[in-house]
Design a protein that fits this description.
The protein is an alpha+beta fold and 167 residues long. The protein has one domain (2-159). The chain is built from 5 helices and 7 strands; from the N terminus they run αααβααββββββ. Bound molecules: iron/sulfur cluster (SF4) (2 copies). Residues 31, 33, 39-42, 61, 78-80, 82-83 line the site of one iron/sulfur cluster.
Length: 167
């Protein structure tokens, strides 16, 4: 399924989903990198050593959720845009998903957007609460998207409505 469509299976997703107990304790990286490819910036850039050393550069990344603090450095460094930061307890009803983003226009903070799942299907609204950019981020922004808590492990992209203001 993944090879044909690019969309991971439920088993794939289960395999990279932190336990609810960990999600409840604060932001954490969710690494959706399902194929063996010659790539390792997630490992080399992590300042906390939360991603296990890749002896073979083709290895899939393995993260220790107890060491990861959700800083987002790996999400910005990942050329595959395959890492998302999930802050499940952002508020009582909302989760915050930090989504790597390389398109233009970049959404403005405060914008309400359509939240999309991994298949690109709209599954609700999201609010852009912060756009994290910087010279040291190359062209990858991190879009901080507030969504309903129930969608925390489903929202992985977003779409701006036509005519929505952007910068
Ligand atoms: S979010 Fe930060 S601490 Fe966690 S794996 Fe990525 S770089 Fe390391
Ligand atoms: S940097 Fe991204 S694409 Fe490369 S191995 Fe890590 S998660 Fe996969």
């Amino acid at each position: 399924m993944l090879r044909k469509t690019g969309v991971p299976t439920l088993d794939d997703i289960r395999s990279i989903t932190p336990e609810l107990e960990r999600l409840n304790r604060g932001p954490v990286a969710v690494i959706e990198c399902f194929q063996e490819i010659p790539c390792n910036p997630c490992y080399t850039k992590c300042p906390r050593g939360a991603i296990k050393e890749m002896i073979d550069i083709n290895e899939r990344p393995q993260i220790d959720y107890e060491i990861c603090n959700g800083c987002g450095i790996c999400a910005i460094a990942c050329p595959g845009l395959a890492i998302f930061i999930v802050d499940y307890n952002y508020s009582k009803d909302k989760a915050l998903i930090k989504i790597p983003y390389e398109f233009i226009p970049i959404p403005a903070e405060g914008l309400i957007v359509r939240a999309l799942n991994r298949e690109g299907v709209s599954i609700g609204d999201g609010k852009v609460v912060r756009v994290q950019t910087g010279k040291n981020q190359n062209r990858t922004s991190l879009i901080w998207l507030e969504v309903d808590k129930s969608l925390a492990m489903d929202v992985r992209n977003f779409k701006m409505e036509e005519g929505a203001y952007a910068r």
